[in-house]
Design a protein that fits this description.
The complex is a heterodimer of chains A (371) and B (409).
Chain A (H helix, E strand, L loop, with lengths): L1 E5 H11 L14 E6 L4 E6 L3 E7 L2 E4 L1 E6 H10 L3 E6 L4 E6 L2 E6 L16 E6 H9 L16 E7 L4 E7 L3 E8 L8 E6 H7 L9 E6 L3 E6 L2 E6 L8 H4 L6 E6 H12 L8 E6 L8 E7 L3 E7 L2 E2 L4 E6 H9 L5 E6 L6 E5 L5 E5 L5
Antiparallel strand pairs in A: 1-5, 1-7, 2-3, 2-6, 3-4, 4-17, 7-8, 8-9, 10-15, 11-12, 11-14, 12-13, 13-26, 15-16, 16-17, 18-22, 18-24, 19-20, 19-23, 20-21, 24-25, 25-26
Helix pairs in contact in A: 1-2, 6-7
Chain B lengths: L8 E6 L2 H9 L8 E4 L9 E2 L1 H4 L9 H7 L4 E4 L2 H15 L6 E5 L2 E5 L10 H16 L3 E6 L2 H11 L4 E3 L5 H5 L12 H9 L5 H6 L2 H8 L2 H9 L16 E12 L2 H21 L2 E12 L4 E12 L2 H13 L7 E9 L2 E2 L8 H20 L7 H4 L24
Parallel strand pairs in B: 2-4, 7-8
Antiparallel strand pairs in B: 1-6, 1-7, 2-3, 5-6, 9-12, 10-11, 10-12, 10-13
């Protein structure tokens, strides 16, 4: 193998795979990426056996070849170097890297050791705009679980129903849930519920920067493949049954509160400063007849002190007091953009629905705390 | 220079507490060598009466060793309820003399008399009144030690045993500590004493005079504390309120060594329930779960792991403990098992979103309610019922309130 590549090109491609390559030394091959340098086109592959990325790379290839190169080490070298890099393999164990006045020799592994790209059979496909997919991920990923023993919660549910040509994405950690529905064209004939690991979805985001780019989604039995431009992003699916999210979403909450998103967010953030040590517990008191603001947000911590803030909201109904984990509300508010938001409440122990005013497609459910 | 402090601390230390209580409740045992033991086949002596001490019977000996030293020794199976009841009643006596007292363990208490001693004719007179009140009410003896801090009050009570009263006054500290071996001090065990001896330090005076740098070098930050102790200074304040718990754990020596996974699982469930229940009762949740295993040969180790969310759910604790057990290749039979929950927070009472989990929480609540009313393990899981359970004697760190107030049979 003999080739040259620009610093910018290889730095960008290597930074895309840094979170996928293995950092712990459990399987050395997984800390390497696979380079296939061909005169008609070159690409690199990285995998952690759960997720795999295959991306093209622009190279001037003089002599074709394949090699497994340590991803972290090469990335560190590239960052320090200026100008163009020259790669020349010595054999299947060593790679010489030259740039300007520098000379490196890098220990490599033979290409035959790299895990094979999984075969996908009986696939079904659909196409979605990158911008839309990005929005769906951003608005749900924060509420998914992390290393939860209920392992299906550590992913996002993608639910497609052919009859209404919509795709629903859901994330929940067992205390709150976020759900977004988008209309789309798909050729998928049967209802599909697949659970995509959180880490994979999170990594996928870096390839979705161009809004109107088309993303092809290929659904297999155990794997899911996203194709964006020439990049292929493959992930294993989480097996198991996702909780029935439709059951969890409150349907007929009677008390509706309309409020300014920004005012509410800022007030909530201020009050929760005093409750960080106590699971971010804040108290909401709604009172229609109050003279000042008809929502009082408060928190108290016997060791630290108290906070209280009045917020003017549009609320009609009986007095109501309930507790929340402020972080759950703030996470959802952080991805909302409308001027006003709506809270739909029932009683102090029932789930609360939060959404943007005039938007029925994105719904957040938060379970209260007992106060 | 001895410690100059304006505090007056009184230490009440019950004499052979469990044994005395037993002798008091059963007159036939009075004046005889007795030892309080647990009910299992492999229990050890937890307390022995003064009569048994004459024969050299020591705490921690098994029944065979005790019997060899004192053939006519009488073994009494510990009755935890008697001891915890007595301990709770004792607090009523202490509270007559000061509101600031700490139940340090089931048989030791510290009273801060700094602000109240003059109301009752001085601290020595209070000591006598407490001794008399305990004798009148329970018929058992205790030793009272008085000193300017808890270290010296405890030392005074140790020196005054049995049935004594001793006061180490601030002006006498220097002379009282002069030739006292370091291991007499509360908090210096034989291991630290041995390490000090290697430095040529045998008495408290030598410890107090030892250069800080030397002690720091050998014992790290604890070196400073040791030096202060040698001078009779102890800065630990009396804890009048129960401390915030740092961990909640239970361990038990099993009635017999076990190897079968099925048996281990049943005990793990039981320990997890004890831990979960205590956490729920005191409104704690934790994220870190530790599993403790002691093999037949007493080799002990623990493994710990973190769960994704704060919990006090018996099953989450159990599942995690079980998962850690799965990661261990047992090299021998198991003698002792323990489960511990740490990284605690106060339960924020977050309601789960999913119906099944709300139900699970309700079930635990209902079980707790029944067991609060009718006693521990009255309502429990089928897989636990198979197990026999011996009553151990309570841990000396038992306290009448707070998270260390463990319910006992």
């Amino acid at each position: 193998m003999k080739l040259s590549v620009s610093k910018d090109e290889i730095q960008e491609k290597l930074s895309n795979i840094q979170n996928i390559v293995e950092k712990r030394n459990t399987m050395p091959i997984l800390s390497h990426f696979f380079l296939d340098a061909g005169k008609k086109g070159s690409y690199i592959v990285a995998t952690d056996l759960e997720t795999a990325i295959k991306e093209p790379i622009e190279m001037k290839v003089e002599k074709e070849g394949k090699l497994c190169i340590p991803a972290r080490k090469l990335f560190e070298i590239v960052r320090e170097i200026e100008g163009e890099l020259l790669f020349e393999s010595v054999d299947e164990q060593w790679l010489k890297v030259k740039a300007g006045t520098s000379d490196f020799r890098l220990a490599c592994l033979p290409p035959s050791e790299f895990p094979a790209w999984p075969l996908m059979e009986d696939v079904e496909e659909m196409t979605i705009d990158a911008g839309m997919l990005m929005e769906m991920i951003e608005k749900t990923i924060y509420s998914a679980g992390e290393s939860d023993t209920r392992y299906t919660l550590n992913g996002l549910l993608f639910h497609t129903r052919p009859q209404d040509t919509a795709i629903t994405v859901v994330g929940t950690d067992g205390h709150r849930l976020a759900l977004i529905v988008k209309q789309m064209e798909s050729e998928i004939k049967n209802e599909k519920k697949i659970i995509v690991p959180r880490k994979a979805v999170s990594e996928l985001r870096r390839f979705l920067s161009k809004d109107d780019e088309k993303v092809k989604i290929v659904i297999g039995k155990n794997h899911l493949l996203f194709r964006v431009a020439d990049v292929e992003f493959l992930t294993r699916l989480i097996e198991g049954t996702y909780p029935n999210y439709e059951h969890v979403i409150p349907q007929g909450n009677e008390k509706k509160v309309l409020m300014k998103r920004e005012t509410f967010t800022k007030a909530l953030r201020r009050v929760s400063v005093m409750s960080r040590e106590r699971a971010n517990a804040v108290r909401f008191d709604f009172d229609e007849s109050a003279s000042g603001g008809n929502l009082i947000i408060s928190s108290s911590n016997p060791d630290i002190g108290e906070a209280r803030e009045e917020v003017a909201v549009d609320y009609k109904g009986d007095k109501l007091s309930m507790g929340f984990n402020a972080r759950y509300l703030l996470d959802s508010l952080g991805v909302m953009s409308s001027e006003n938001i709506v809270l739909e409440l029932q009683d102090p122990l029932s789930p609360v629905l939060m959404r943007e005013e005039g938007n029925e497609d994105y719904r957040c459910v938060v379970m209260p705390m007992r106060i | 220079m001895a410690a100059v402090t304006s505090k007056t601390i009184l230490c009440v230390d019950m004499d052979a507490f469990f044994a005395s209580v037993e002798q008091q409740t059963n007159p036939k045992l009075r004046g005889k060598p007795i030892a309080v033991i647990g009910s299992g086949g492999r229990t050890v002596v937890t307390t022995r009466s003064y009569e048994a001490r004459k024969y050299g019977v020591k705490t921690g000996m098994n029944v065979y060793e005790a019997k060899r030293l004192c053939p006519h020794i009488i073994f009494v199976i510990g009755d935890n309820e008697k001891y915890t009841h007595t301990c709770r009643e004792l607090t009523k006596i202490y509270s007559q003399f000061t509101p600031d007292f700490e139940i340090y363990s089931v048989d030791e208490a510290f009273l801060d008399l700094t602000t109240t001693h003059h109301l009752f004719g001085g601290s020595e007179s209070i000591g006598k009144s407490i001794k008399q009140a305990i004798k009148d009410k329970f018929g058992i003896n205790c030793t009272v030690g008085i000193g300017p801090d808890i270290l010296l009050a405890k030392l005074a009570s140790d020196l005054g045993k049995p049935d004594g009263i001793k006061w180490i006054k601030p002006e006498d500290v220097e002379s009282d500590l002069k030739d006292l071996p370091v291991k007499e001090l509360w908090g210096i065990g034989s291991k630290i004493a041995d390490r000090l001896a290697l430095l040529g330090i045998k008495t408290c005076e030598e410890l107090g005079r030892a250069p800080s740098s030397l002690l720091r070098n050998k014992f790290g930050i604890y070196g400073e504390t040791l030096k202060a102790m040698g001078m009779g200074i102890c800065n630990r304040p009396i804890q009048t309120k129960p401390e915030d718990a740092k961990s909640i754990g239970h361990s038990m020596t099993l009635p017999k060594d076990i190897w079968e996974r099925k048996e281990i699982k049943a005990y793990l469930l039981m320990l997890s329930e004890m831990v979960g229940r205590r956490a729920r009762k005191h409104r704690y949740m934790g994220r870190t779960i530790a599993l403790v295993i002691r093999y037949t040969d007493f080799e002990t180790f623990s493994k710990q792991g973190t769960v994704s969310d704060f919990t006090n759910d018996t099953h989450v604790i159990y599942e995690k403990a079980l998962k850690m057990l799965d990661g261990i290749k047992l090299k021998d039979k198991i003698r002792l098992l323990g489960v511990c929950l740490s990284s605690l927070i106060n339960d924020p009472h977050q309601i789960p979103l999913v119906e099944e989990e709300r139900k699970r929480k309700s079930i635990l609540q209902a079980m707790d309610y029944v067991n609060d009313k009718y006693g521990e393990f009255k309502l429990t899981w089928g897989s636990y019922i198979m197990q026999e359970r011996d009553a151990g004697v309570i841990s000396p760190s038992w306290k009448p309130s707070g998270v260390k107030s463990v319910n006992v049979k």
